[in-house]
Amino acid sequence: MTVSHAKIPKTMTAAVLTGHGGFDKLEVRTDYPVPTPGPDEVLIRVLASAVNNTDINSRIGWYSKTVTTGTESGGSTGFADLTDEDAAWSGSALGFPRIQGADACGVIVAVGERADTTRVGERVLVRNMLRSYVENRPYECWTLGSECDGGFAQFLVAPAAESYRIDSDWSDAALASIPCAYSTAENMLHRADVGADRVVIAGASGGVGLAAVQLAKRRGAHVIAIASTSKWDAVREAGADEVLDRGTDIVAALGEQSVDVVLDLVGGEQMRDLLAVLRRGGAYAVAGAIGGPIVELDLRTIYLNDLRLLGCTFQEDEVFENLIGYIERDEIRPIVSATYDVADIEAAQKAFLSKMLVGKIVLLPPADDAESDEATATSTK
Predict the structure, then answer these.
(1) Cβ count within 10 A of residue 39
(2) Residue 204, Cα to own-chain centre: how many angstroms?
(3) How would DSSP label each residue in 226-240?
(4) Closest by CA position to 216, among listed 246, 182, 256
(5) Helical pair 317-328 and 179-192, crossing angle rounded to 10 deg
(6) What CA–CA distance (Å, rounded) separates 377 from 121?
(7) What is the SS3 assignment for 317-355?
(8) Average pLDDT by consecutive 10-residue portion of the chain (381 residues)?
(9) Alpha-carbon torsion 226, 232, 235, 236, what sign?
(10) pTM higher than 0.85
(11) Which pairing describes strands 308-311 and 278-286: parallel, antiparallel, or unpaired?
(12) Contacts of 184 (CB under 8 A, 6+ apart)
């Protein structure tokens, strides 16, 4: 491989997940081997990586069909009764040890034998839903930090084709806030073909929710956000036209068949009312169920109103490519609420689970001894 530094260390600091369960399954190691890029991969020195729901869900094994409650019920301790075989988002067993972190902003410091050597030194964002490893087959992908090691470390390897050069004066922490949350939101909007529509966003104050508010407004939508009252100001600042409190009678507040699209990041009992406010031919897009994965609904609501139900995980290439363009044209701007050292991952996840902060929580790895001045010259804008 070709390297940019005179020396790349053999070991690194990494937050390692050793199994499904509570915080005790997270180990911060300072002697973890630095990975070597394969022929079509690059080695990236991580500058920042954000915390996401998928990190918590994978740690506690929430994706297993044996779990029927929301994320919060097992966020700290995990679940006593769990089937490891289906406890990852893909439905297959998660391999341990695993470095999590679906978000990664960093600098390419080495390339594999078939990768372009001129890319050494590029500042990049890694696509979180990786298609290279499954030969770009539709509806298949690996998640960074789940099916392969992710950004909660000083270094990671990623496909060269899915490590996107980024030309931006944003801080590393701001850039690291984009891949998972914003691609999830953009994918929902893309799949629902949102334009100048009336859009309801359930869970609007979380990382994906705030991204969805911004991205929906960018498309010209009228945004109705559902969030707790303490977070209304932040949601309005992101662009929401109307805000409803969590627990509000949505049907009474909006009226039946009054909106074009619902973006649901919560799930749970509220789903029935969200379907009721959709117009005939409207679209319900879901990409999360932190409020509970098991719901009750009336199928007549769906088929008599010709509703479209869209499960949103797999992402077409253009979704992430769109985001790179939005960043470089300064059309969006994430909120970074807090940063933690990667060694403080437990505190960061506890802060995330508290839901007290609005915006993204970002982990910063320690700088390696060989870090170059040029690679770290980033703005704090």
Answers:
(1) 11
(2) 14
(3) EE-GGGHHHHHHHT-
(4) 182
(5) 120
(6) 11
(7) HHHHHHHHHHHHCCCCCCCEEEEEEHHHHHHHHHHHHHC
(8) 70 97 96 97 98 94 88 84 77 90 97 96 97 94 96 98 97 98 98 98 95 98 96 95 95 97 95 97 96 92 97 96 98 95 97 91 84 38 32
(9) positive
(10) yes
(11) parallel
(12) 208, 211, 287, 288, 312
Measured between alpha carbons, how far is 287 from 284 in angstroms, rounded to an integer? 10
Q: Which two tokens stand for residue 198?
A: 């009336």
Specify the residue for token string 């799930």. Answer: 267
In terms of Cα–Cα distance, which of 230, 270, 219 is closest to 247? Answer: 270
CB-CB contact of 104 with 14 (8 Å)? no
Q: Is 272 exposed, middle or buried (0-12, 13-18, 19+ CB in 10 A)?
A: middle
Cα separation of 279 and 260, whole Å? 6
Tokens of 330: 């300064």
- Helix pair angle (207-218, 179-192), 10° resolution: 50
On whether the CB atoms of residues 236 and 201 are closer than 8 A, the answer is no
- Which burial class, exposed, middle or buried, applies to 164 when counting CB atoms under 10 A from its CB (0-12, 13-18, 19+)? middle
* Both tokens assigned to 78: 């995990």
**What is the C-alpha separation between 104 and 3, in angstroms, rounded?**
19
DSSP state of 168: -
User: Taking a C-beta distance cutoff of 8 angstroms, is the pair 307, 259 a contact?
Assistant: no
